[in-house]
Amino acid sequence: xxxxxxxxxxxxxxxxxxxxxxxxxxxxxxxxxxxxxxxxxxxxxxxxxxxxxxxxxxxxxxxxxxxxxxxxxxxxxxxxxxxxxxxxxxxxxxxxxxxxxxxxxxxxxxxxxxxxxxxxxxxxxxxxxxxxxxxxxxxxxxxxxxxxxxxxxxxxxxxxxxxxxxxxxxxxxxxxxxxxxxxxxxxxxxxxxxxxxxxxxxxxxxxxxxxxxxxxxxxxxxxxxxxxxxxxxxxxxxxxxxxxxxxxxxxxxxxxxxxxxxxxxxxxxxxxxxxxxxxxxxx
Length: 283
Prior knowledge:
Blueprint: E1 3-7, H1 12-28, E2 32-38, H2 55-73, E3 82-88, H3 92-100, E4 106-114, E5 118-121, H4 126-133, E6 138-142, E7 152-156, H5 162-165, H6 168-178, E8 181-188, H7 197-210, E9 216-221, H8 225-235, E10 240-245, H9 257-265, E11 271-275
């Protein structure tokens, strides 16, 4: 993964996410970090907003703040990693997508505030929209997270259409760049399903996709999916939890407030959120 796009609103959570991403860039051997801020102008109302309407002032303030963040994280990056700053008045999702087209192998880093503000997150209420709408991988950094060398990552698997939906190549790119081990985890609470012919077939497909990477396969029983994932991740000292965002099934509640709150508030671990593959993966 050559390019890290850090979306920031200059909050404490945003700075923490930027510091984490800068430190991670060494392990990833990233070529560049792009610091991005959207100062999207408010919709015109009867109430005057003289400063907000002055795009030039907002732009200059954003440049100054971005340079401050750049200074704060420069010492955390490898010497050959470049840091560039970008700011405009595009809607945040559009701005991120446009930026991603200009650089190779990008992923986005955003932060969340943690327990005190729950779902109120970096770039305000737009965080969930970013996770749902942005096409590239998104690394969500809880405010309590601090970077340590990532030795393993946990991938939650739902054993549904494994071959058709698993973003195998993206996950392998992260694995190889980080030189880390993959722990595949299925959380379930229905023992009868373990012996269902469809489940057995999906387990076979899972092994077919991943065996050449020599991962570990784990199965755990928990009626609370988020809690099961996080307890496992903590027990195995995992550095990142990978979630594949699907439109159905096991993780369909990921973007609902209750599930997102549980994932965000019950861990200090970063969440790497990936979109499901659009077509069957051939291995």
